[in-house]
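ok trying again, last paste got cut off:
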Amino acid sequence: MADSEVIAVTGSTGYVGGRLVPRLLESGYRVRCVTRSRESLANRSWSEDVEIVEADLQSQDQTLMALAGANRAFYLVHSMTAERNFAEAEENMAGVFADAARQSNLKQIVYLGGLGEDNLEKSLHLQSRHNVGKILASGPTPVTELRAAIIIGSGSASFEMLRSLVEVLPIMVVPRWVTKTKCQPISIGDVLNNLLHVLQDNSYENQIREIGGPEVVSYREMMHAYTKVAGLRRRVILPVPVLTPRLSSHWVNLVSPLPFTLARALIDSLTTDVVVQHENRKGQELKNEDTLDSAIGKALARIQELEIPTRWSDTSSFKDPARPEPTDPVWSGGKILVDKREALSHASERSVMKTICSVGGDNGWFAFNWLWAIRGFVDKLLGGVGLRRGRRHPSDLRVGDTVDFFKVTSVTSNGLRLLAEMKVPGHAWLEWNIEKQENKKILVTQQALFVPKGVLGRAYWYALLPAHIVIFSRMLNNLIQKAEAET
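nice, full thing came through this time. structure:
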């Protein structure tokens, strides 16, 4: 029974592991998260519902401690971001884990590896992934190895590389393999379903299962799919024979926030076909339903109501695992441009929040109301909603309310968040938060956040940066003065 099993999850701070844990909890399993730092899980919505064990998986004693009393384990760790010898580090860690699993009488190891034929000389990354699977399976503990190619979801390293290239570059000079090699991308939701399915079918024997989405495409076709779903202009992709994987990695490093070592490992794995070639045994199949367009669409769902890139809401319900999470790597979730300002006030918390919630409508925007009016007029000319002066109530706000050309997406006792509805080449938010300090003063934080859409979005932000510096600074100062005057 699920509720009697303890499932150890290594890599619980990673992309897949962090999304798998709440799914395991929802399925009734008792979950033990294995991490090198307990603090790394402190801000997860589910951290109070799991057992957390600190362990370095390169240490035999610590790994034994982490697996003690566990029934089964997910092995979701890798060392691709290591500066050197990541393959050796991965293999040593797998050997330690396999021996600890034997001594702990673990019933099963579930390992997520990479698609592709064995002995792939072109990709050290895929070689290492396959070798790890072999090492784990060399012991007496049954190992189910799932092999997947590119995982589509916001925060997935391979998807973030795709996103960066397509968003930034309207014209791309790419190595020839981008147009020729084939891969079979799969959505993060389908990956999680397959991982859970392994636990449910109770098949305790060494086996390899290849998983992939319903489409086999080239990397160029994936780029075109991204532009279509994201609403960007179709990119011009020019293949040339002279770009080596190393040169390509440096190029990706220039236009993408991915670390060079990670980009190099990913590019190496893309130079060879990675598609499902071996049918899984009957009874093991799980239909993967997300098409490429659907998976990309979910990964781009950051603009949905109540979501912003730095503070994703409702992650505990786990409705869509493709959405970004606060603990994803800093390079995930697309480019986020932020104007952040802080100031102290001796006004009461109630007075500060009352003032914040009075923004817009006849009350104005604390500073340069004439500039806001011009912006609203321009928006109307562009076919936008324009400056919809007026509010439902002069001081009360509810989620869903319209405040001029913003919408209220979150309002609490210590914060307000507005989603911009005006025409902009990207997605914009304004938010204010307050926090009581030890000196009894109130720290007021004001942020303007912008996720640019392509090159035009970045140009828009930086062109307005001088004006934003003046406007947002004056807004915060006047807000505090107004709150203090009413205290």
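cool. The first helix runs from residue 15 to 26. Residues 179 and 459 are 30 Å apart (CA to CA).
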